[in-house]
Design brief:
Rossmann fold, Dihydrodipicolinate Reductase, domain 2, 32% helix, globular, disordered C terminus, oxidoreductase, NAD(P)-bd_dom_sf, plasmid
């Protein structure tokens, strides 16, 4: 597979490092609007073909697939151009800034018949895959309750850099620079983590978002710091289970931690994923009486990168695909509406609706997410 890299920032470096380890993958070109960044990236990975615009790369055309690692708001126009050129696309999350754009990308990719996948990176967590298998096999019985959290601390820690001075963090705090805050940035990850791990669809969501004051006047230079820092979400699942999902960038002591707890009538599972590794624990059988949890061994799983390469090679679409990511974006869009309206909203069609429900009610209804 001849691969084009669109965008050459830090995530692109991580992606290419993974792709280059896969047999049969050749990174043949790179695109970036910043000449110096493009040169540094291409020199580092030994990439000969370099382009300052996606149009130049498409005119050249000597590639089979592209990985789109541009900023969020650039995903839609560049991916649409790649699809129109008949190229397979591996896109960073979120798929788009809103559901309408994500759905347009999905429809275009499906109509063109190109392989389309989204890099929901925590699908690479083997305990998550094993937990889903156990749920689907009925080992927990009927799922009753789900807890999921995504905790980061980069607003109180400089472990990843200083957001006060670095544009790569500041843009994530500003809606004017294309950010939907922690909800748009990592919300898609924890929504997928919860729904995929619990193997059941999300039916309803009721959300609260919070933006905390971080600088005098709420602004640093050109960046108005108005994107949400924390969110909480109450959800109903299609199987009747109740769920609580939340995320924040103010979680002192948690650099980057995802946690999922799945409670069933016959047992429970807990997944914890941190930068230094992940863990799966369960409470089953006689351990239920003493509330004793035991570690569960987990085998390695293919990464998203490996699955994308396999999909391109075989022509068989694999998950997570654009449609799934678009459905997650629908939930995110409705969570934002939920916060603004502070009342029940009903989605009566596949379009994201904003029809108010009864006065004082507190639910946002969405169509089920296929997992």
């Amino acid at each position: 597979m001849r691969l084009l890299v669109l965008g050459t920032g830090s995530m692109a470096k991580s992606q290419v490092s993974h792709f280059k380890l896969i047999e049969g993958v050749e990174v043949v070109g790179a695109v970036d609007t910043d000449p110096s960044r493009l040169a540094e990236f291409s020199d580092h990975f030994g990439i000969e073909k370099r382009f300052l615009a996606i149009e130049e790369a498409i005119a050249w055309g000597d590639f089979d697939a592209a990985t789109n690692v541009t900023p969020d708001r650039i995903h839609h126009p560049t991916t649409m151009a790649l699809i129109a050129a008949g190229k397979h696309v591996f896109c960073e999350k979120p798929l788009a800034e809103n559901y309408a754009d994500a759905l347009e990308m999905t429809t275009a990719a499906e109509t063109a018949g190109v392989i389309n996948m989204v890099n929901l990176t925590y699908r690479n967590v083997a305990p998550l895959q094993r937990a889903r298998e156990m749920v689907l096999a009925g080992e927990l019985g009927t799922i009753k309750h789900v807890e999921a959290s995504y905790l980061q601390s980069w607003l109180v820690s400089r472990a990843w850099g200083d957001w006060r001075t670095e544009s790569r963090w500041l843009w994530r705090l500003s809606t004017g620079h294309g950010s939907n805050g922690v909800l748009g940035d990592v919300g898609i990850h924890i929504l997928d983590f919860a729904a995929y791990g619990a193997a059941t669809d999300i039916d309803h969501v009721f959300a609260r978002l919070k933006t905390f004051n971080k600088a005098p006047g709420g602004q640093i230079g050109e960046y108005l710091l108005d994107a949400n820092d924390s969110f909480t979400m109450s959800v109903d699942f299609a199987n009747g289970a109740l769920g609580v999902i939340h995320a924040t960038r103010w979680a002192t002591g948690h650099l980057n931690e995802l946690k999922l707890r799945i409670y069933g009538e016959r047992g429970s599972l807990e997944i914890i994923h941190r930068p230094n590794g992940s863990q799966l624990r369960g409470c089953f059988d006689e351990n239920i009486e003493t509330a004793t949890w035991a570690d569960i061994d987990v085998a390695p799983v293919p990464t998203n990168y490996q699955r994308f390469v396999e999909a391109v090679a075989t022509g068989k679409q694999l998950d997570p695909n654009f449609r799934h990511a678009a459905n997650l974006q629908k939930v995110i869009d409705l969570a934002i509406v939920s916060e603004k309206e502070r009342r029940e909203l009903n989605l009566l069609s596949e379009e994201v609706g904003m029809t108010p429900g009864p006065e004082g009610a507190g639910n946002v209804e969405v169509l089920p997410i296929a997992v």
